[in-house]
Amino acid sequence: RAYESSIAASNNFATGSTRGTLTDLPAGTYVVMARLSYYNPGVAGAESCTLTVPGNDDTVSFTVGAGETEAVTLQEVVTSGSLYMATVSCTSDGTDDIDGGGSLIAIRVD
């Protein structure tokens, strides 16, 4: 079974704010993946995005130049004995955007 949630396009998002959420995932083993397009309209900077799930999180760090877009992909295998939630958050200088949105997907593999 597969679950999907959209990561909405957003402008000038606050650092650390949740960009996407999958709630009420049943117990089991999943491959959880996220993809988004991170746009920096301001000065170049070091940023990161994190997929938060039970167990280990996946964080990707990147430098995005002024006026450039970075394709961000996150993934993690999760085994949970109870209902859980997966979220994606990113750092920002307050002027960065999620350009065109993205998706957060969990595929049950057990």
In short:
This protein has 110 residues and is mainly β.
Describe this structure in words.
The protein is an all-beta fold. The protein is built from no helices and 8 strands. The strands form 2 sheets. The protein has a 4-stranded antiparallel beta sheet, with no helix packed on it. The termini are close together.
Shape: elongated
Reading the helices and strands in chain order gives: EEEEEEEE
Question: Structural class of the secondary elements?
Answer: mainly beta
Major sheet strand order: 1-8-3-6
Uncertain ranges: none
Chain-averaged pLDDT: 96
For the sheet with most strands, the description reads: 4 strands, antiparallel
> Helical stretch count?
0
Approximately how much beta-strand content do the residues carry? over 45%
How many β-strand stretches?
8
Cα gyration radius (Å): 14 Å
Helix content: under 10%
> Distance between termini?
10 Å
Ordered list of secondary-structure elements with their pairings:
Layout: E1 2-7, E2 18-25, E3 28-40, E4 45-52, E5 58-64, E6 68-80, E7 84-90, E8 97-108
Antiparallel strand pairs: 1-8, 2-7, 3-6, 3-8, 4-5, 4-7
Provide key terms for this protein.
110 residues, elongated, four-stranded antiparallel beta sheet, mainly beta, 8 strands
